[in-house]
Write a structure and sequence with these properties.
7 helices; 2 domains; alpha+beta; Helicase, Ruva Protein, domain 3; binds zinc ion; 10 strands; N-terminal domain of MutM-like DNA repair proteins; about 20% strand; elongated; about 270 residues
């Protein structure tokens, strides 16, 4: 599932190709992709409208239009957003397609079908879920984490996955963050020391920023990989490495499950 760094890659790669383009046709092939409203409402909310910018908040992308309307997009498990030339073969499970005024097409393909598009009209409340998000990783402070975790007995990893606390962290980066911070993922949130809150507060933005850089690809690379080239795992230190030696101390990494999510940690380095 794409997490904040991957969604940010999609944003930086696609933003220049969408900026100032007008939507001249909308094709919705599966109604499930609409998070609200009808296909006609969605289509007429953006048809003949010019895109002014593409922004990101947590794992949500927002396409802004000159008329003040916005389309909020969540890729969920398998959603892939690409801008294609009209002659490019259309990927299977393409559920949404916008023809742009230069002939290019914004396409959304989604194997599992959990991805969603919401039309938010100018002045209307955003009910996509984005309105409930906690802070962006770059704005996390030790005081904020302490305030959010202090009365919680839930595992630190599970608290990191809570989008209402910090937006954009998923299963992969929560493991990487706990490892870098030297904190065992199953520790109850309220058991952390002030020093550990401080470590977590510096590690969260650092890991996310590092992976935004690591995942950066050019538009050509992105197109060649059909929007999936950012899914590289060569920089991950412990996610997916259960049973392998810890990159710091050589101890075998433990794989476990916490509240239904897989988790990998080093029993020696993470206290
Ligand atoms: Zn270790």
């Amino acid at each position: 599932m794409p997490e904040l760094p991957e969604v940010e890659t999609v944003r930086t790669v696609l933003a220049p190709t969408l900026n100032k383009r007008k939507v001249v046709q909308v094709v919705i092939s599966n109604l499930k992709v609409l998070g609200n409203g009808t296909p006609a409402q969605f289509t007429y909310g953006i048809l003949q409208q010019t895109i002014t910018k593409l922004t990101r908040r947590g794992k949500y992308l927002t396409v802004h239009f000159a008329n003040g309307n916005r389309v909020v997009i969540h890729l969920r498990m398998t959603g892939v957003l690409t801008v294609n030339h009209p002659t490019d073969p259309v990927a299977r499970h393409t559920v949404m397609l916008w023809v742009l005024d230069n002939g290019d097409q914004l396409r959304f393909a989604d194997d599992r079908g959990f991805g969603r598009f919401w039309l938010i009209r100018d002045g209307q409340p955003d009910l996509s879920g984005q309105q409930k998000l906690g802070v962006e990783p770059k704005n996390v402070t030790a005081e904020y984490l302490q305030q959010k975790f202090a009365r919680r007995t839930l595992a630190v990893k599970s608290l990191l996955l809570d989008q209402a606390i910090v937006a954009g962290i998923g299963n992969i980066y929560s493991d990487e963050i706990c490892f870098r911070a030297g904190i065992a993922p199953m520790r109850p949130g309220n058991s952390l020391t002030p020093d550990e809150y401080a470590r977590l507060a510096t590690t969260i933005p650092a890991v996310i920023a590092e992976f935004i850089t690591n995942h950066h690809v050019t538009l050509t690379e992105y197109r060649k990989s059909e929007g999936k080239s950012y899914q590289t795992d060569r920089y991950l230190q412990i996610y997916g490495h259960a049973g392998q030696p810890c990159p710091h101390c050589g101890t075998t990494l433990n794989g476990t499950r916490l509240n239904g999510r897989s988790s990998v940690y080093c029993p020696n380095c993470q206290k």
